Amino acid sequence: MTATTTNAADRRTPHSGGTGRAGTGQAGPNRPRLPGRLRRVGLPYLLLLPALLLELLVHLVPMVFGILMSFKELTQFFIRDWTSAPWSGFDNYRVSVDFDAPIGQALLHSFFVTIGFTVLSVGLAWLIGTTAAVYMQENFRGRGILRAVFLTPYALPVYAAVITWAFMFQRDNGLVNHVLGDQLGLTDGHTFWLIGDNSFVALLTVHVWKLWPFAFLIIMAGLQNIPRELYEAASIDGAGIWQQIRRITLPSLRSVNQVLVLVLFLWTFNDFNTPYVLFGKSAPEAADLVSIHIYQASFVTWNFGTGSAMSVLLLLFLLVVTAVYLVLTSRGRKAADV
Amino acid sequence: MRRLRAAAVIATVTALSAAATACGGGTSTGGGSNDSPKTLTYWASNQGPDVQADKKILTPELKKFEKQTGIKVKLEVVPWSDLLNRILAATTSGQGPDVLNIGNTWSSSLQATGALVPWDSAQYAKIGGKDRFTASAVGSTGAEGKDPAAVPLYSMAFALYYNKQMFKDAGISTPPATWDELVADGKKISKGGKFALGAEGSNPVENIHQTFVLGKQHGADFFDAKGNPTFTSPGAVAAVKQYVDFMAKDKIIAPGNAEYSQNQSLEDFAKNKTAMVLWQNASTTFEAHGMKASDWGVAPVPVASGKPGFGKQVNSMVAGINIAIFKNTKNLKGATDFVKFMTSTDEQKVLCKAYANIPPVKDAQSDPAFSTPEATALKNTLLTSAAPLPQVPNESQYETAVGTAVKSLFTDAASGRPVTTDSVKAALTKAEQQMPKS
């Protein structure tokens, strides 16, 4: 099945490219014709050029600046003209990874918090998204409305949504304690959610709530591509629902999941908005994500050099994880194709 | 598959680059010009109950200025949570307003960036000279020995606001003058879901305002003469412990206040849930919450013993707002004229009345509007017993580092974990180690 999807995808690519070429050829009979080969090879690149330029301007140039800054002693004395800040070599990196000193220790702590947060967030968002998408495959009354409701968290402005959660998590006046304590009797109704250790649970809840609709949307799209006949054939052969999910649904979604999990991972690892809106500039220790930590180093203690070094370290970590992930999944993928 | 892998790579690059994109940079030089003499951009800090209220108060005044000078002022009211970052971004890019408000405690930190026009005597002379302003307000405009980075615009001080009815119900006739009295009164009041004192435990800046003053009373500064942090000095530790102990040991602050950071303690006060708050110029906020002026009273913030004064008797920081000119202005003359207008005696009366502040301009203080009991208490505090926060370049980092340490101690207190001299010292040690080298 997976092979079928891939072939179909591969077949479509050259086909659509072909249409494009034919179109250009017909449109300009009076234009000076580029040599055939140049046109064939050059045009796609020409079309990519604006995107490449934008990518360069929006991402790569600031990234290079960020890397440069990480080698400078960039404090408030130099931010007006950061190029004049003195070089500090690898000092900023040394401070960041000196795990015996407070700055390094705090960074390491926030790194582990972020790992735990990311694994749990992505796992839960994926699980909820997949379950919901599988259920939504069936035709039933009200399915459209339910789908729209499911997507609400994804569609809401982040700030408004998270600030509402912050209100709900308030100890004395919040809805969460009211429901858990007064209505369900599960707690004494005086639990702190926004400070102390529970802040991790609060952060996780809000982030998963915000994240899973995206997983749901992508998996639902992936499910549409699985031919119904496969399920029909399987059920004639006596396969139950679990077997169908295990043997048909999940393998067919493999490619979709590969991208989905990667994107969810990167978004979560870098998530800044949720903790910032929920906790402000100083997050509780239990919910001190790396993104907030770097923000603090840069914009609160005004040590932009160290903040940049931490960013670069984070970038390297994410690059390595992503590379390993892509290699591993494509290897598994090849094995499945064979 | 190939397409998917390409998508994965693009997604990766896009998501990753967000990680490494630190603040953008731009170079800027020069100290202002007069290239566009007919316009000014002004970033006002949010002083009133909300941004709209500020616009309503300021717009007619800016029109007045336009009528006088022909200069049109574009106003932007910036909320406090954004202001410092906005100023930093403007400093880095060189693209900022012409004139801006800054919190007076940031003066030295921002002075160190070199982004603000220095107020040497020639520049000060253009607005009538330094002597027009109160000394305490001028003390919060930059590091000692350097030309100030800003001019005082609004002055504020801390006072003890108390709920008259709650005091009466507890059989207390006069507000406490010392901390011992405050704790004793507080224990009488803190019963049946009501508490004596409010705090904003999760707001680092507010924690600083309170612990700085207590630090002064314990004979401690948070920095030494060279500008190095001394957060773990015995006086500083005692000050922080005393403040957190109001919740941990004395139990006169409600544990829920540990998570307050949006001025919820003022709302509790207005709703008769808390009997006292230590606050600056709180009357407009109380009114906004529906409290009548006759419902509350004002007294000086308590001291350890005796009466408020300088030295160990300090009972307030010099709170307030300064007005500064951004060095990249294209209308230095107009900007200076605007500062002159905003700090003129007449205008000071109008603005400080509207915001219930104390004018830092001496002549304006004689207006009867500044003789109400609240204004008198605040004025006297500024005059006799308020000290400016440390005027060192790392001041804003101190606010965050120590303020966050106090926040975590409040979390301990609220969750029933012990707050000891050792745990306070440990938290402050960590804060000190996080400070950048100065």
Protein architecture, described:
The complex is a heterodimer of chains A (338) and B (438). Chain A has helices at residues 2-27, 36-69, 91-97, 102-136, 143-155, 158-168, 175-183, 199-224, 228-236, 241-252, 254-269, 273-279, 290-300, 304-337. Chain A has 14 helices and no strands. Mean pLDDT of chain A is 85; it is low at 1-28. By secondary structure, chain A is mainly α. The longest helix of chain A is centred in the middle third of the chain and has 35 residues, at 102-136. Chain B has 438 residues and is an alpha/beta fold. Helix content of chain B is 44%, strand content 13%. Chain B has 17 helices and 11 strands. In chain B, the strands form 3 sheets. Chain B has a 5-stranded mixed β-sheet with strand order 2-1-3-10-4. In chain B, strand 1, helix 2 (51-69) and strand 2 (72-78) form a beta-alpha-beta unit. In chain B, helix 9 (204-217) crosses helix 16 (395-414), helix 10 (234-248) runs parallel beside helix 16 and helix 10 (234-248) packs across helix 17. In chain B, 55% of the residues are buried. Chains A and B meet through helix 1, helix 2, helix 4, helix 11 and helix 13 of A and helix 1, helix 3, helix 4 and helix 16 of B.
Overall spatial form of chain A: globular
Lateral strand order in the biggest sheet of chain B: 2-1-3-10-4
Report strand % of chain A: under 5%
Structural class of chain A: mainly alpha
Query: What string, H for helix and E for strand, traces the elements of chain B in order?
Result: HEHEHEHHHEEHHEHHHEHEEEHHHEHH
Structure at a glance:
The complex is a heterodimer of chains A (338) and B (438). By secondary structure, chain A is mainly α. Chain A has helices spanning 2-27, 36-69, 91-97, 102-136, 143-155, 158-168, 175-183, 199-224, 228-236, 241-252, 254-269, 273-279, 290-300, 304-337.
